Structure formats: C-alpha cells, structure tokens
Amino acid sequence: MDLKYIIGIILVIVVIIGAYLTFAGGGGQEKITIAGSTSVQPVAEKLAQAYMQKNPNVKITVQGGGSAVGLKSVQDGTAKIGTYSSKLAANDSAGITQYQIAKDGIVVVVNNANTITDLTINQTKDIFGGNITDWSAVGGSGGKINVVTREDGSGTRDAFVSLVMGGKNGTPILKTAVVQSSTEAIKQAVKGDPNAIGYISLADLNGDVKAVKISGVTPSEQTITDGTYTIQRPFLFLTKGPAQGATLDFINWVLSPEGQAIVKQAGAVPVGPT
User: Fold this and answer.
1) DSSP state, 103?
2) Using CA atoms, how far apart are residues 97 and 213, in angstroms rounded to an integer?
C-alpha cells in the first residue's frame, strides 16, 4: 500500500478521534461569555475563576472592550453577560435586564511626584474642561496640566461626565486631552508623566498613581458605602431579558455573600452582605 495513502488515513483517524474527544469531553459543559467594561473586567475575572473552581461543568470567559461593547454584545447575542460601569440610559435599556453586582468609586489620580492631595469638584471640572491649565492655580508646583481621559463609549467616561462635568449638556472634556482606551492605559500614562491627571476605577487603584481627595474625602469602601464620596457609579451585569439557566445561577452566586466577598477582595464595594 502506498505510504502517502497510509499517512493520510492515519491523519484522518487522528482528526476524528480529536474531534470526538473534544465534543465528548465538553459536550455537557455550560458556557458563559462575559464582555464589556474594562473597569468591571478584573472583578468579573475573579468571580469567574472562583465560580468555575466550584462548578467545573461551567466554562466562563471574560473579555473587555468597554461598556459600549458590553451592551452591544448582549443585544446581538454574542455574550450572555455584558458588563457596564455607569447608569444605563433609558433609551438603551429596552429588553435589557440589569443586575448591580457592586459599587465603584471613580478616583481622580495624579503622578506620585505631584504635591496635590485634594481638589474640589469644581476644580476637577475646570481642569478636565480646560479652564484650569497650570498646577499652580490649584496650589501645586507650576507646570502645564496634561489631561488624560477615556474614549467615547467608556462607561467610566460616561459616569465621570455625568458626575463631575455636569452631564452631556455640561462642560465638555478638553478636546486636546490624551485619550486612552482602558483603565490600565490611563494608569500608565499618569505614572509616566509628572504633570498628568486622569481618572480610574477604585477597584484598579494601586501604587502606580496617587488618588486625590475630593473636597477632603478620600475614596474608599467606607466613603462610597456611606455616600460621602460622591463620584461613584454602579458595576452592572446586563442580560438580554431576564437571565436564565447557568447564567442566572452564576449571577445569583455573585450576589450571594460568597460572591460579594470576592467582589470586596477584588477592590470593588459590595452591594450585599459578605
């Protein structure tokens, strides 16, 4: 028999066996795809990892892309859960069920070398709107302020505009601001520029950048829970219609004391008892 023919038969058999093992091994596994907000993503990843350890028959994949991607992915059915990091507008909520899994503070951050420790809401608005352009105007060392912001469609940007800038009809963010497409990119931009200022999720705050107090209030779990830190927003899971099956089981677990304890470990503020 021709050697090439024998090799061909062997390859076909290998492919058939591989396909069988793939479908036989994973045929009973429930799959949940989560996509959306890069602020919610680290929290969702930790929740998914913990849940899969307890439920090996469930496979959860978590992706970023921004809140706009989370909403669209649920609407078009490419994700079971969309993650969203601001209040959902009324015109976007048709057919969408919202589950608030956590609260989050939006933290104004500066470079660690910056001497500024406190800003008012109005000073923050004037900086991001371009009315204050030098650090000396707010009590810092002289130097041009370099504003860093998130892209259009970001839930973090939408919440910041709503809570700080006065909403869509308020003060627009400076057109010359440096635009970054993720929370991590904002942190790295501010970390690398002594004159930069940006805003990130409290859940992602670490030693790379310095948090600024707002009107004397430090962003923390306590000040977000008691409402004294006012720049805060919800972390949402979105589903197309009410969640069902494995997706509902996962969301119910996220909202349980066990799931909320992991939310807290991930740096977000729980919405239920832990």
Assistant:
1) E
2) 34
Which pLDDT belongs to residue 1?
52
For residue 249, give both structure tokens.
């089981």
Residue 114, amino acid:
N
In this prediction, residue 109 carries a pLDDT of 98
Q: Is residue 104 helix, strand or coil?
A: strand
Cα–Cα distance, 152 to 141 (Å, whole number) = 31
- Dist. CA 159–CA 66, nearest whole Å: 13
Give pLDDT tens digits for 50-87. Answer: 999 999 999 999 999 999 999 999 999 999 999 999 89
**Would you tell me which CATH number, out of the four given (1.20.1250.20, 1.10.2020.10, 3.40.50.300, 3.40.190.10), belongs to the domain 105-232?**
3.40.190.10
Class assignment of domain 28-104+234-270?
alpha beta
- Model pLDDT for residues 179-225, shown as the tens digit of each residue: 999 889 999 999 999 999 999 999 889 999 999 999 999 999 999 99
Domains 28-104+234-270 and 105-232 in one fold: yes
DSSP labels, 171-210: PPPPTTSEEESSHHHHHHHHHT-TTEEEEEEGGG--TTSE
H/E run at residue 18: helix 3-26
Q: What is the pLDDT of residues 21-35, one digit of tens each?
A: 444 444 578 999 999
What is the amino acid identity at position 203? A
What residues have CB less than 8 Å from 5, skipping those under 6 apart?
Answer: none
Do 123 and 78 touch, CB atoms closer than 8 A? no
Domain parsing of the chain, residue ranges: 28-104+234-270, 105-232
Lowest mean pLDDT among 73-77, 84-88, 110-114, 235-239: 84-88
